[in-house]
């Protein structure tokens, strides 16, 4: 697949002149410029997500400031859950006032026919960004994996172990599966809508997919991500699947069928690539807290990861999870530059 962007070339395993890099959660509170836009007006975080002009502005910030090789749509994995009929708030973490616990709750969930209407601000932001970038960087669209979305919908908020979801999964598997079917279909429509609107790659975030044992991942998590990916109108759109804490079950993660696999920092990137094989690209995997270290240490860590990759094609540099809100921006800028500098052919 011919493309001029290093990021997309790397997704397809093609050679690049230097390793492309972007940061998960690269638009956010660590940037004073984000905080400025966020505080403009009286709006909440959700208001910002729903304002195409300001949402596009904060998507562009890390491209200008960090020189990242790809932009990611500014939104949240939970925004498409609102039109399913759930009241969503951020405080600052997500809160659903009425979590899903019963068959009646699942039955009430709406799977909107037309996601472009249900979350009309999302295609509006995507179109605005494609025009603004004019070929400068590719735009990544994204969604939560069905399992991670279910974690929040059933728990009603963030959690360390999402015990309420697991209770449903083990105690009432048919209820769990009915819920997952609805979420997966919503997600399929949502991501296809983003592709239709102009997203040039799709990342699926499975932040909590590693909370389960491998045999449970195979039974309760994987079938839905697999179905989701199989249902995307991918054409030439690469799909990235990031499952945090999945280092002990990479073969299963690969079975989902993505073009790129996101890795966290608990795995050695080279060993992970040996397990995954040559037909899939990888993205990762710097420990996000390394961005608090002195610059020479950051540079050493970037070099270590480049060495672990050992020149194999199909590599995108990223953090192993989202950037933290207290990271000094200059360290993030330094990291991106180090990747470019140290990998330049
Ligand atoms: O720059 C980007 O990456 C695009 C924007 C983006 C946000 N959330 C904005 C956001 C993306 C890709 C996400 C994904 C997301 N959201 C995930 C998966 C990735 C991950 O980090 O694990 C998850 C689990 C969520 C749910 C969520 N949203 C949580 C747990 C929180 C609270 C924690 C926090 O960072 O505050 C949010 C809020 C949120 N989403 C903020 C941002 C910029 C902070 C809100 C604010 O500005 O006050």
TrEMBL record:
Subcellular location per UniProt equals: Cytoplasm, Cytosol
- Return the EC number: 4.1.1.37
Copy the pathway line from the protein's UniProt record.
Answer: Porphyrin-containing compound metabolism; protoporphyrin-IX biosynthesis; coproporphyrinogen-III from 5-aminolevulinate: step 4/4
Keyword list (alphabetical) reads: Cytoplasm, Decarboxylase, Lyase, Porphyrin biosynthesis
Q: Does the keyword Cytoplasm apply?
A: yes
Q: In chain numbering, where does the site feature Transition state stabilizer fall?
A: 76
Q: Which GO terms describe its biological process?
A: protoporphyrinogen IX biosynthetic process from glutamate
Q: Which reaction does it catalyse?
A: uroporphyrinogen III + 4 H(+) = coproporphyrinogen III + 4 CO2
Record GO terms (molecular function): uroporphyrinogen decarboxylase activity
GO CC terms, sorted: cytosol
Question: Which PROSITE patterns has this protein been placed in?
Answer: UROD_1, UROD_2
List residues binding substrate.
25-29, 76, 152, 207, 321
Residue ranges annotated for the Uroporphyrinogen decarboxylase (URO-D) domain, each copy included: 20-29, 140-156
Give the InterPro entries listed for this entry: UROD/MetE-like_sf (IPR038071), Uroporphyrinogen_deCO2ase_HemE (IPR006361), Uroporphyrinogen_deCOase (IPR000257)
| Similarity comment: family membership | Belongs to the uroporphyrinogen decarboxylase family.
HAMAP family membership: URO_D
Task: Name the job this protein performs.
Answer: Catalyzes the decarboxylation of four acetate groups of uroporphyrinogen-III to yield coproporphyrinogen-III.
Its quaternary organisation is: Homodimer.
Q: What name has this protein been given in UniProt?
A: Uroporphyrinogen decarboxylase
Q: Which organism does this record belong to?
A: Desulfuromonas acetoxidans (strain DSM 684 / 11070)
């Amino acid at each position: 697949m011919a493309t001029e962007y290093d990021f997309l070339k790397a997704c397809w395993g093609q050679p690049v002149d230097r390793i492309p890099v972007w940061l998960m959660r690269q638009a956010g509170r660590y940037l004073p410029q984000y905080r400025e836009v966020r505080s403009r007006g009286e709006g909440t975080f959700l208001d910002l997500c729903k304002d195409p002009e300001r949402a596009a502005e904060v998507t562009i910030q890390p491209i200008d400031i960090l020189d990242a090789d790809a932009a990611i749509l500014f939104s949240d994995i939970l925004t498409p859950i609102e039109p399913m009929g759930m009241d969503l708030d951020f405080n600052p973490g997500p809160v659903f006032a009425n979590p899903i616990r019963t068959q009646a709750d699942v039955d009430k969930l709406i799977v909107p026919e037309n996601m472009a209407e249900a979350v009309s601000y999302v295609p509006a932001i995507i179109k605005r960004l494609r025009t603004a970038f004019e070929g400068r960087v590719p735009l990544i669209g994204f969604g939560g994996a069905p399992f991670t979305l279910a974690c929040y919908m059933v728990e009603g908020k963030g959690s360390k172990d999402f015990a309420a979801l697991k209770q449903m999964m083990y105690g009432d598997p048919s209820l769990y599966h009915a819920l997952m079917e609805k979420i997966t279909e919503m997600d399929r429509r949502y991501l296809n809508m983003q592709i239709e609107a102009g997203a040039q790659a799709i990342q699926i975030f499975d932040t909590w997919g590693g909370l389960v044992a491998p045999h449970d991942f195979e039974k309760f998590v994987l079938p839905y991500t697999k179905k989701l990916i199989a249902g995307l109108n991918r054409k030439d759109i690469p799909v990235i699947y990031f499952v945090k804490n999945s280092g002990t079950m990479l073969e299963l993660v690969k079975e989902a069928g993505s073009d790129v696999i996101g890795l966290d920092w608990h795995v050695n990137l080279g060993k992970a690539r040996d397990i995954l094989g040559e037909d899939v690209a990888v993205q990762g995997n710097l420990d996000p807290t390394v961005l608090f270290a002195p610059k020479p240490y950051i540079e050493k860590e970037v070099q270590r990861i480049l060495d672990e990759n050992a020149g194999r094609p199909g590599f995108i540099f990223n953090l192993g999870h989202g950037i933290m809100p207290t990271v000094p921006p200059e360290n993030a800028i330094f990291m991106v530059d180090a990747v470019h500098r140290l990998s330049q052919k």
